[in-house]
């Protein structure tokens, strides 16, 4: 466990961001509307957070609940949002779209990624709802900027997906498996050690960083506890 693990925390506003950084987060995922599992935040929010903290930020590109990109005009709106967010200081992103059959919506993903112009990005938990995870990874393997998959290993969460996460971590170096496995979705502290023992070194928390759950703000103390555990202390 010599390599420092990445700890990414969901932030909704400046106060969340400041508390997460103080607790030891390496990176933030910026979203709004957690009732819809996280949508694209306002550019003003992103700019405010960028001014308040100096750790990496990944900004969600998702305009509605679910994993469909929508019609052509919806994809165009995502492209515009990406441009506006980049002007606000965003240089890392989170996205992922599936079609009605559970395959990756490659046309939509490629169009949005083109607007990022090489920025780093995470393919989010849409992978956990895909009909074929392996096929999805191989289709996306060569897209510029893709460096992580946010995944629980299963739609139901890490409890069910742990064997898949361990297996995929073991395939690093194979086509489609060079990206970081960023574990999130029902992640609990007791999952960390077996995941780290499998070589996984990136973790994502949302409600677990909040002492009062989503009803309250990010807790610096909660993040600090996660930092301690992911560091193997």
UniProtKB/TrEMBL annotation:
InterPro entries according to UniProt: CutC-like, CutC-like_dom_sf
Family indicated by similarity: Belongs to the CutC family.
Protein name (Swiss-Prot/TrEMBL): Copper homeostasis protein cutC homolog
A Pfam family recorded for this sequence: CutC
GO molecular function, one term: copper ion binding
């Amino acid at each position: 466990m010599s390599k420092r693990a990445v700890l990414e925390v969901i932030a909704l506003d400046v106060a969340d961001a400041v508390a997460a950084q103080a607790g030891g987060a390496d990176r933030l995922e910026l979203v709004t509307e957690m009732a819809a599992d996280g949508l694209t935040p306002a550019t003003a929010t992103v700019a405010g957070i960028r001014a308040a903290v100096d750790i990496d930020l990944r900004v969600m590109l998702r305009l509605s609940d679910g994993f469909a990109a929508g019609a052509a005009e919806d994809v165009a709106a995502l492209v515009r949002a990406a441009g506006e967010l980049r002007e606000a200081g965003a240089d890392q992103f989170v996205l992922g779209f599936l079609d009605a059959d559970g395959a990756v919506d490659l046309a939509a993903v490629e169009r949005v990624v083109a607007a990022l112009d090489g920025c780093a990005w995470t393919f989010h938990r849409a992978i956990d709802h895909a009909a074929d995870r392996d096929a999805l990874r191989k289709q996306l393997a060569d897209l510029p900027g893709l460096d992580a998959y946010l995944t629980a290993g299963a739609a139901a969460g890490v409890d069910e997906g742990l064997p898949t996460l361990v297996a995929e971590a073991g395939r690093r170096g194979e086509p489609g498996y060079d990206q970081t496995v960023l574990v999130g979705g029902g992640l609990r502290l007791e999952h960390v050690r077996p995941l780290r023992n499998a070589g996984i070194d990136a973790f994502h928390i949302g409600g677990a960083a909040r002492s009062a759950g989503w009803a309250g703000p990010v807790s610096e103390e909660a993040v600090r506890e996660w930092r301690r555990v992911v560091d193997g202390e």
